[in-house]
Amino acid sequence: MNKKLSRQFYEQPTLKVAKTLLGKYLVRRIGQKKLVGRIVETEAYLGYHDKASHAFGKVTARNKIMFGPVGFWYVYLIYGIFSCLNIVTGKKGFPAAVLIRALEPVEGIAQMKRLRKKSNLTDLCSGPGKLCQALKIDRNLNGTKAFGQNCSLWIEQRGESGKFEIGKSKRIGVDYAGSYWASRPWRFYIKNNQFVSKK
DNA sequence: TATTGGATCGCC
DNA sequence: GCGATCCAATAG
């Protein structure tokens, strides 16, 4: 049974959402076709005190979606080349989001290979920039809704999540934020899963 | 208005 | 190890 996650799901505490998203399925609809991957790695960005977060300090044109209500996508361009995908969490006015960092390809694998120009399964979605390329996600989806009707991008539960161990570490690529924020253990991943981004 | 550097990736 | 490549953020 496939069940799209509701707005209420994203109202849970951000760290809980980040952990609970592991084993769920990211679904990208393009016309009648679907590209689907199982989420195996996430990171939490938590509040305006978090120096590693784009929402640190104040509202800007780019980060304003993070200050809005839960259940909307925050998509931004990194290094002028790749997109990164986050789902907004936290109450309105409190900026938080969960970055989707890696997927295990499930449906539409042939098209993912074309979009990525890669044929190795473990190279398709094993990083935040890679999975956006594989699922044709870019800033056109910034600010769109992940719940309710007429979404082109959402997360769903497919039966039971299955048994796996959750690993935890500091977040990747945020050393500029200073030792305290860079060392928060807010990255979560499925242990011993080959599709997790390599460090 | 000008400059700077990034929640990455892939090739050298 | 390093360059790609663009735009948001900040400084002036």
Question: Keyphrases for this structure?
Answer:
DNA-binding; single chain; alpha+beta; 9 strands; 199 residues
What do you see in this structure?
Helices cover 17% and strands 32% of the residues. Strands 1, 2, 3, 4, 5, 6, 7, 8 and 9 form a nine-stranded antiparallel beta sheet that branches. The protein is globular, with a radius of gyration of 16 Å. The model has no long low-confidence stretch (mean pLDDT 96). The structure holds a DNA duplex (12 and 12 nucleotides).
Distance between the termini: 34 Å
Give the helices and strands as they follow along the chain. Answer: EHHEEHEEEHHEEHE
Question: What proportion of the residues form beta strands (DSSP E)?
Answer: 25-35%
Question: How many individual helices?
Answer: 6
**What is the count of β-strands?**
9
Q: Which structural category do the helix and sheet elements fall into? A: alpha+beta
Rg, rounded, reads 16 Å
Indicate the percent of residues in helices: 10-25%
Largest sheet: number of strands, sense, barrel closure: 9 strands, antiparallel
Task: Indicate the mean pLDDT.
Answer: 96
Q: Which spans have pLDDT < 50 for at least 5 consecutive residues?
A: none
- Shape, per Cα inertia axes: globular
